[in-house]
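Hey all, sorry for the wall of text incoming. These are the two entities for the joint prediction.
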Amino acid sequence: MTEERASDMLPKTSLSRRNVLKGAGAAAGLAVGPGFVRYAQAQSSAPIKIGFQAHKTGIGASYGRWYERTTNAAVKLINEAGGINGRPVEIVIEDDGTDPNRGAEVVAKFANQHKCDIVYGTLFSHVVIGSAPTAGELKIPYYVVSEGHHVASTKLNRYVFQPGITDVKSQIQAMAPWIAANAGKKVTQIFPDFAFGYDHRDYLPPALKAQGADVIAQIAIPPTESSFTRYFPQIPADTDVIYHVMVGPAVLTFVKELGEFYGSNRPQLFGFIDSLEAVDINSPGLGFLDGSHFWEGSPRYAQPDDSDAQKAYRAAVGIDDNGAAVGDPKDISTAAHMFGCWETLYVIKKAMEDAGYRGPEDRGKLVEATEALTEFAEGPEHPQGPKTFNGKIHQCFGIQYISKVENGRLNVVHKTSIEDGIYEPEGDYTTMPL
Amino acid sequence: MAFGPHLLLAALEGLVTSAVLALMALGLSLVFGVMRVVNVAHGEFYMLGAVVAWWVASLVTGHPALGFLAALVISPLIVGAVALLAERLVLRRLDYNPEATIVATIGILYILQQLALTFYGPDARPVAAPFTYRVLFPWFGYSGYKLAVVGASVALLLVTWFVLMRTRLGLVMRATQYDRETAQAFAIPVDRVYAGVFALGAMLAAVAAVLIVPISQAHYLMGLDPLLLSFIVVIIGGLGSLRGTLVAAVLIGLSDGIISAFFQPTLAKMIATLIVALVLVFRPTGLFGTSAR
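and here's what came out:
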């Protein structure tokens, strides 16, 4: 009995000498493989490693997929054109699960384990806020594509940059005059109950006030919510405009239930396209959106006056004229945000070249070179439009698009200017020690 | 919005929640009642039902109702087969040991969730509702489909009740629940009854998911919230008591709808959890439960 039990607990197979030799041989083969030799010999020809903190899973997953495609398309072009400082760019992807805790771990993993030069690519604001302290502690530059105001607020640290997409405060300031003049004066706000939503909550009321309009109700909805009708009775009856911005896997349900609640007898709607990002605007039940307006960071649908740069960008990323993946009309892109990945990578390239970046020992120089940037001209590297960059607050400023839903398409009806979105800096990162 | 219409909207939302919850919790309760297995993977059978529904509906062309009806038939069958497989390969080998099956079903939960993530992806995908009629109240509009879900759920619950109370199959199940050993002595194939009940429980969750998927969408994490609510319902109603499950589902669904609409959804969850705590303290067997044999 005891013997039987003992033999049960022991593994049935033991290591044979042959297996051990095989394993050791394979390991040795890997170590002397061509890849290892090349990079060990000459560090200057080793790739520049960019750690891509991607929302592959969790509530940001559809953004993550398109951020990845855009990143790969831009990196392919950069490498074909000779890389950065003559070195190829290598993207190392880690999934952060759209979760702040994991985000911070991923940043540390990029710095310590993957030995990446920089970290890049985060969208969701709570992940950025959760990860930024780790980037600051490890002194690794962290280029986010997040839209939130947290970078420009100068409440993060000197290593965090947002050079490829404008922030919510600037977007709201640029669009408030249009909303007050064209949509209505009494505004009810619906926003997601986390950091990104709070930017909308905090900056819309003063921006509208300046235009003689008022926010009469603010409704916060958790981004993980799956049912929305229950929130709609809180919308005051005298609302002229519903200003909506939702994120998360249930955005389609949100818009659909809004349609069921109001039908065609609805107040004006002004939405951030986030409420429909990666969702087909012609999905059943969305007909009531016809005639409503959306903010777009960059137009989802091809526009008649698209620049050659915009056309080339769309082709490289692989989206058709409807903003869906080429070959899969159901796979709708996150066009209003993902251009930021493309542009951020080109800003990184420019800053690394300005700094003469060679390796992690030059990270301080890279930070200073990025801060020294002032302007990005519209063109193949910046297809969304021209931008200015404020090195003190690590934030770029650009144009915004307002589009109208017409015949199942989003047509751009208004473009703001860069100046519309400029505000007084709230602080200065450059005074902080490196 | 005035109080009356607001309450009506809240009650409607609550009824929809109740209807889906009742189906799902019934499955959980049935499995526990007959097999004494706490099926933590129940929410994932629900998720799987929704994902399969999306897959079936995307294969069927033509009117959306065709795809939906196909999903309503095929999805529970596939989910039932998966459950049957899990029962044969895992639960039976553990001899239905209560502690071991909890751990095992947690494992099944993660396996199903990660398989869905791998093969279906992280996106939420919609299934078109079989019809898009909008019921127009004087104060607000409401989805006609949501009301149909309530009706469909009631019909399915009646069918389940009929099967359990009026058929030989139900008799066999109830006998097994009442006393496993005596049932075996009377030549009831307890082993096969267990397999059938586990599959049936999963199928009820899958049906609930197919009904809900045109309202919300299929997503690989969608099973967690309903699982929690189902446990709340089953504990309040009394583990293994079908009548208790139904009463508790209506109670929790309505209170969830009304408290969410007038106050906060979080508050609704807090109150539901508080009720569970109170029930466990003052009436550990639940409102309608009898003590376990």
